Amino acid sequence: MKYLKSCQLCHANDKKDRVSIGKRVIYQGNYNYIAVDISPLSLGHLLIITNEHYFNYYETPKNVKKEANQLKRKIEKVFREVYHSDTLFFEHGSSKPNEAGSSVDHAHLHAIPCSLYLEEELDVLGKPIECDIFLEQFFNEFSYIYLENSKNKYIYKVTKLPSQYLRKLVGEKLGNAHYDWRVYCKTEYSLQILEQTYLDLKEKIK
What we know:
By secondary structure, this protein is an alpha+beta fold. It has helices spanning 62-82, 165-173, 181-184, 188-201, and strands spanning 25-28, 32-36, 46-50, 87-93, 108-113, 129-130, 143-148, 153-158. It starts with 24 loop residues before the first strand and ends in a 5-residue tail after the last helix. 35% of the residues are buried.
């Protein structure tokens, strides 16, 4: 098993504080788990996270990708039922520390109940590549950002981006300026949204 002592996402149940990952897990699979985001950008904000340590989902083996894809479908179904919404998935896919806007270099995919199309805002990054990183196998030779909505699945090859690049962009589109999880994770507002999301979804994803 591949773990890093310094990686907070490698140790789902190690910590006991109110916003630790162990208190937010709502589903545990063989290769991935689902947890409520530590500082949700909206009600329903979840993360799919690999059990073992990988930099990103692009580099994970087929069995991890296959299960993660199944978890995506579960989340989409539950978001339609609970929030009557489509789903936006995104990932900061670093292949080296602190690239691609990643602030935690462990594979984790964001899932938010919303309909957002960010192509115009991301024009500055160049032309996207259409692909589904959860159905295809690649050699991980570059950092990227990945977005998936009801119409498209695509990546942008990138290197350095500002920390939490996509979190900020999505937060702005949702009218939530409190995108920086390191700053806002223990505010009363974030805790209320986190706890309500946990209550909404903990029995729904099976």
